[in-house]
Design goal:
about 140 residues; alpha+beta; Ribosomal Protein S5, domain 2; four-stranded mixed beta sheet; 4 helices; 4 strands; about 40% helix; globular
């Protein structure tokens, strides 16, 4: 029976953040916010702790701050995509199993993809540097 919706090719590679790489539980998010080390940028706060699993994981928090759901979802999608393509591979390659929580500030709504990407990439490089990681 054809439902008329889009057909998924089961053999095609997925372009999603795998469930095993997501931080979803509110208890884990609260733990990271309270106990994690923080790295700040102009538009983001990034919290991180060693992961209890054998792989890096990622979470994203976006403030409502009188924004439409469309704007919030766009910002979340941008941050997840940047983290999926830049941060997680970089952490895997460097052997860092960290839980990383990216919290957008209000100002993040007004900046473009390139600026967010540069900020997230800078934080990822700092997290993987020996000096920063050992502090």
């Amino acid at each position: 029976m054809d439902t008329g919706g889009p057909r998924l090719d089961r053999g095609a590679p997925t372009q999603r953040l795998p469930r095993s790489s997501r931080i979803q539980r509110s208890t884990e998010i609260r733990w990271l916010l309270r106990r994690g080390k923080r790295k700040r940028t102009a538009n983001l706060d990034v919290f991180f702790l060693p992961s209890p699993f054998s792989r890096p994981r990622l979470g994203v928090i976006v403030p409502k701050h009188r924004r439409r759901i469309v704007d919030r979802n766009r910002l979340k999608r941008r941050l997840r995509e940047i983290a999926r393509t830049e941060v997680l591979p970089y952490l895997r390659e460097s052997g860092r199993n960290l839980d990383v929580l990216v919290r957008a500030k209000r100002e993040a709504y007004g900046v473009g993809y390139a600026t967010l990407r540069a900020e997230v990439r800078g934080v990822a490089e700092a997290l993987c540097s020996e000096k920063f990681y050992s502090d």
